[in-house]
Amino acid sequence: MFSALADPTRRDMVARLAAGDATVNELAEPYDVSLQAVSKHLRVLEDAGLVSRTREAQRRPVHLEAGVFDLMTKWIERYRRQAEERYRRLDDLLETMADEAPTAPPTPKGTDR
Predict the structure, then answer these.
(1) Predicted TM-score of the model (pTM)
(2) Which end of the chain is more exposed for a tag (fewer CB within 10 A), N or C?
């Protein structure tokens, strides 16, 4: 999923699909690329499970699979919490080390130290 979203064109397509379903032609409008290139981008997004295509008579709309983004968000959140916990433990350790560190003796007056 993350590699599919690494491309700025695909990210833009996903953002546009968040507003509603669209056809390949509608998705291709703002880009200076062929319909084949847009279809390839959509195939990458489909393979990642981020979009799906359906058939409505002659129309084949592309649909954003929002549930997949919920799963990605949960996955990211889990790792964010783990990272925060590790940083909290590191902060605690550094604070303990600073409290235990010997203090430097005072510098005698009249020296350039």
Answers:
(1) 0.67
(2) C
Structure tokens at 106: 């005072």
Q: 102 CB contacts (<8 Å, ≥6 apart)?
A: none
d(CA 76, CA 1): 12
Cα(38)–Cα(113) distance, rounded to whole angstroms?
Answer: 68
Answer yes or no: are the C-beta atoms of 61 and 54 closer than 8 Å: yes
Geometric angle at alpha carbon 62, from 39 and 65, rounded to 5°: 115
Average pLDDT taken over every residue of the chain: 89
Write the Ramachandran bin of 20: left for phi over 0, alpha for psi from -120 to 50, otherwise beta. left
Architecture label for domain 4-65: Orthogonal Bundle (1.10)
Residues 38-85 pLDDT 10s: 999 999 999 999 999 988 777 889 999 988 888 888 999 999 999 999
